[in-house]
Design goal:
Elements: H1 17-32, H2 39-46, H3 60-84, H4 92-113, H5 115-121, H6 144-157, H7 169-186, H8 194-211
Helix pairs in contact: 1-2, 1-3, 1-5, 3-4, 3-5, 4-5, 4-6, 4-7, 6-7, 7-8
InterPro entries: Homeodomain-like_sf, HTH-type_TetR-like_transc_reg, HTH_TetR, MT1864/Rv1816-like_C, Tet_transcr_reg_TetR-rel_C_sf
Pfam families: TetR_C_33 (PF13305), TetR_N (PF00440)
Keywords: DNA-binding, Transcription, Transcription regulation
Length: 212
């Protein structure tokens, strides 16, 4: 390095400013959750002046929503990876069960590995408007909510889940797994040993399966 030269900054130089700002906000969210995603810090990290953000985002809420969707897409990718790592199943029923369980284990794994992004992913409007938005989808084109729905549909198709119990099952399964994830990263279960966490995850998914 030449004398007097400082370290290179990973800043925005040209191209897609909107995505550069989302990437910068994403990294801030990873470090500090949704509270860390503020316009001034995001533009500073992207290497542009604060006013530049207003070309693409009306206010902080708009930026935070975009970062939230990007974080949600990462949740989906982790769930997809968990499913992709499954060994071949003995039959259709076993495969459907394994894919369903992988949705839950991937979800909790993401929460524990990326708590800042997990909190940001669910810093969303108070409805289901964006649950199927393509900006929150993983590499397979499905959002976390859609991955859960597809896994439940597979259970029905494989004859594991009675068809009359399918309506609304997403909300029951999601509530149970999300509750556990929240307790593990922000609640009294955050001090559990890794083996205890693994057992808790399996027990909750067992409970959901039995309930369905």
């Amino acid at each position: 390095m030449a004398e007097g030269a400082g370290p290179k900054r990973a800043t925005y130089r040209h191209g897609d400013l909107r995505n550069a700002l989302i990437r910068a906000g994403f990294e801030l969210a990873r470090e500090g959750g949704p509270e860390a995603v503020v316009l001034r810090a995001t533009t500073r990290r992207a290497g542009v002046v604060p006013n530049a953000a207003y070309r693409h985002f009306a206010d902080r809420s708009a930026l935070l929503h975009a970062v939230s969707q990007a974080a949600m897409a990462e949740v989906a990718r982790t769930m997809e990876a968990e499913q992709a790592a499954l060994p071949p199943a003995a039959d259709a029923a076993a495969g459907a069960r394994a894919r369903f369980r992988a949705v839950g284990t991937g979800y909790v794994r993401f929460a524990r590995e990326e708590p800042g992004l997990f909190r940001t992913a669910f810093h969303v409007p108070g409805d289901m408007t964006h649950a199927a938005d393509e900006t929150a989808a993983g590499d397979g084109g499905r959002t976390p909510f859609e991955l859960l729905g597809a896994a439940l549909d597979d259970l029905v198709e494989a004859g594991v889940l009675p068809e009359d119990r399918r309506p609304g099952a997403e909300f029951l399964a999601w509530s149970a797994v999300h509750g556990l994830a929240a307790l593990l990263i922000d609640g009294p279960l955050r001090g559990l040993h890794a083996t205890q966490v693994q057992q808790a995850v399996q027990d909750v998914i067992d409970m959901i399966e039995r309930g369905l």
